[in-house]
């Protein structure tokens, strides 16, 4: 083949450059960075970050001991606070040592002073926010600056917790969304290596079983792992830090689905070389000409299905779609441009394959008995479709994380002893002067209304601090000088320097943050602020509530776009809408099987990421299989009738589709080994989805074709 050496050398050089980039690629796991700016939670988060210079994300340090009020434990916590206050990423620190120092017991003379008792009572109540009633657990709340990077902050805080830790401290760790994000990030790095190695080994095994040649797994993995390196390397060289699921799903899809194009091409090469006895060069050219067209059409079809994810309003989902499309197109390009040169460059002996189709006659059973096949599929689809109708996706990703991550163990300790969660909703008030009496009265009403929602465990914010300031101003100088620094410290992160923005922190009870966020959001939306005053709310629970409102509409939009895409390209390529329409019927039934079985029968709730990506991915992958079978059928139809043409198609091209589907399923199911539940959930839905779609395509697609052909032939 012409330019073979140049193609291979260029391929190796580019792969080396891209592999370097892939190994140095940074990823992002914080899903809040990908939410639409039109979300109310995001608008007010930007206000807090801009005006207060602080983040709405809070770290909670959880300390467990026999008695956290004893001197060794208190001294340990004070050292932690002192070290944290010197950190550049910390905006404010307040914890158990502070509230215990402020206890009325430390100011016995002040308690009896007129006007001071309410202040002392408020300080005593604030103790409950940081120390459990049984004195076994204490917390330190760390407000982070808006530019704080959790990947640097969390390990630094954990190192600080390990320094000089007394033996009486049983447990010391951090929780809160920054800590969970960090643990999730660490789990992702482990998962990426494990999943890549496992899927590569599985793909190699499937290729060897299918072709019984050493060069099949070698060539297959060379093409696909290089394609992975190219896509991730391009992201690196463009300065792009993708969402973690983009990387993991792109790798899995390219190994499990991108290998399909290699299998399709090698299957046709083996047929031309071993069965038909063509010369090696001629067999390669024939395989590329005939299977190459199907590979190109299937690649474009799958890309159209995946590209629909880019229409999502959630940037994390749209990014996944774009990453997968880039991966599939790269796999197609390397299969068509590089694989032929590699095939030509290695020694390949001819292998006798007489009567090879005999072993695959089982795949033609639906062609010989189409009516029973369709009746059986319809019955199963009806039952599982009924179950699928009631399945609703979950937007709270934390529900899928389990309890194994260190930050989640800290969360469990917190909820067990203090009856509070690590989630906060932040009510934000914007005015000319938040210390104006009418604004203060409005904020006090907000506090009362937040408590009435029934989801607030603790409420503290600007009105409390403003009330303390006024009380302290009236105190005698010695007491005032002792209390003023404490009140000023409370003011940080609560009232902006120009006095135009104030916040009220609502720490939630243990529960579903999506439901709790909805209650707080509804409460704020029904408030009637004074003239010139604006009020809003932010925080992860509020974001979950807004995501829940949007997710179904978002899924409908991407599903419709994906269906249109996978219908349009094969229709144009074949100049006939029948193959893609029949294919869509089979694929849709396969999707119902997966959702009905897992969500309806087994009650495994899908995450919104799993549900949305699974539907579009199965539409793209399933139509891939249909296009490849339809392409071969058109070729066989030139010489045979409908039934015989489909029989030859299933016995000759069917094995390639079968092994392609198995590699895809293995790729997705490998995610069950992930350290994080969200990826296990996605892997389960997508893996079972591929198997069910593969079944419907191999059984229902040809059977439907044969039955409809019979109906039309009788009508004539």
TrEMBL record:
Pfam assignment, any one: MMPL
Location within or outside the cell: Cell membrane
GO cellular component, one term: plasma membrane
Domain SSD: 213-345, 583-707
UniProt KW keywords: Cell membrane, Membrane, Transmembrane, Transmembrane helix
Residue intervals passing through the bilayer: 192-211, 218-237, 243-266, 294-314, 320-343, 581-602, 608-630, 657-678, 684-708
Predominant location: membrane
UniProt entry tagged with the keyword Transmembrane helix: yes
Topology of this chain in the membrane: Multi-pass membrane protein
InterPro entries, alphabetized: MMPL_dom, Mycobact_MmpL, SSD
Name assigned to this protein: MMPL family transporter
Species the sequence originates in: Methanopyrus kandleri
Taxon lineage: Archaea, Methanobacteriati, Methanobacteriota, Methanomada group, Methanopyri
């Amino acid at each position: 083949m012409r330019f073979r050496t140049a193609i291979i050398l260029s391929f190796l050089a580019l792969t080396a450059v891209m592999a370097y980039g892939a190994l140095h690629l940074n990823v992002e796991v914080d899903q809040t960075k990908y939410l639409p700016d039109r979300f109310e939670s995001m608008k007010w988060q930007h206000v807090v970050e801009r005006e207060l210079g602080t983040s709405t994300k809070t770290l909670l340090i959880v300390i467990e001991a026999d008695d956290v009020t004893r001197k060794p434990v208190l001294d340990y916590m004070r050292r932690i606070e002192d070290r944290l206050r010197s950190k550049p990423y910390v905006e404010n620190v307040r914890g158990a040592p502070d509230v215990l120092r402020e206890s009325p017991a430390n100011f016995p003379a002040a308690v009896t002073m007129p006007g001071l008792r309410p202040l002392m009572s408020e300080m005593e109540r604030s103790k409950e926010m940081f120390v459990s009633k049984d004195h076994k657990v204490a917390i330190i709340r760390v407000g982070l600056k808006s530019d704080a990077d959790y990947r640097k902050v969390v390990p630094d805080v954990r190192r600080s917790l390990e320094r000089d830790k007394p033996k009486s401290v049983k447990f010391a760790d951090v929780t809160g969304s920054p800590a969970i994000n960090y643990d999730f990030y660490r789990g992702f790095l482990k998962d990426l290596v494990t999943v890549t190695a496992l899927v590569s080994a599985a793909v190699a095994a499937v290729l060897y079983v299918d072709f019984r040649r050493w060069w099949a797994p070698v060539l297959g993995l060379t093409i696909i792992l290089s394609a992975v390196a190219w896509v991730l390397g391009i992201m690196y060289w463009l300065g792009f830090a993708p969402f973690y699921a983009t990387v993991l799903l792109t790798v899995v899809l390219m190994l499990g689905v991108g290998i399909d194009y290699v299998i399709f091409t090698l299957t046709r090469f083996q047929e031309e070389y071993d069965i038909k006895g063509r010369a090696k060069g001629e067999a390669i050219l024939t395989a590329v000409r005939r299977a190459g067209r199907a590979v190109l059409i299937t690649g474009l079809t799958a890309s159209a299905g995946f590209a629909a994810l880019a229409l999502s309003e959630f940037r994390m989902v749209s990014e996944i779609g774009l990453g997968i499309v880039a991966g599939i197109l790269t796999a197609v390009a390397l299969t068509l441009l590089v694989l032929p040169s590699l095939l030509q460059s290695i020694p390949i002996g001819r292998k006798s394959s007489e009567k090879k189709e005999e072993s695959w006659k089982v795949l033609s059973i639906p062609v010989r008995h189409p009516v029973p096949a369709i009746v059986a599929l319809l019955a199963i689809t009806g039952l599982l479709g009924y179950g699928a109708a009631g399945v609703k996706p979950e937007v709270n990703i934390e529900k899928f994380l389990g309890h194994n991550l260190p930050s989640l163990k800290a969360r469990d300790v917190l909820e067990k002893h203090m009856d509070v969660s690590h989630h906060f909703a932040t009510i934000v008030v914007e005015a000319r002067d938040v210390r104006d009496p009418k604004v203060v009265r409005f904020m006090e009403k907000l506090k009362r209304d937040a408590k009435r929602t029934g989801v607030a465990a603790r409420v503290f914010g600007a009105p409390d601090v403003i009330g303390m300031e006024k009380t302290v101003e009236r105190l005698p100088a010695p007491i005032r000088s002792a209390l003023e620094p404490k009140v000023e410290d409370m003011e940080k992160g609560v009232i902006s320097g120009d006095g135009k923005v104030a916040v009220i922190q609502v720490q939630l009870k243990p529960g579903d943050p999506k439901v709790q966020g909805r209650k707080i959001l509804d409460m704020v939306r029904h408030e009637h602020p004074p003239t010139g005053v604006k009020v809003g709310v932010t925080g992860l629970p509020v974001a979950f509530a807004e995501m829940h409102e949007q997710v179904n509409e978002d899924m409908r939009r991407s599903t419709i776009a994906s269906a249109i895409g996978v219908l349009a390209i094969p229709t144009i390529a074949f100049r006939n809408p029948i193959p893609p329409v029949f294919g869509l019927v089979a694929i849709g039934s396969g999707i119902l099987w997966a959702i009905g079985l897992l969500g309806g029968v087994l009650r495994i709730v899908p995450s919104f990421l799993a549900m949305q990506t699974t539907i579009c991915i199965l539409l793209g992958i399933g139509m891939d299989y249909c296009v490849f079978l339809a392409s071969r059928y058109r070729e066989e139809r030139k010489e045979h009738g409908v039934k015989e043409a489909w029989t030859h198609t299933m016995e000759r091209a069917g094995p390639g589709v079968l092994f392609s589907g198995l590699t895809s399923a293995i790729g997705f199911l490998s995610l069950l080994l992930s350290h994080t539940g969200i990826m296990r959930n996605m892997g389960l839905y997508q893996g079972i989805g591929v198997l069910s779609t593969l079944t419907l395509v191999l059984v229902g697609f040809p059977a439907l074709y044969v039955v409809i052909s019979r109906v039309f032939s009788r009508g004539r």
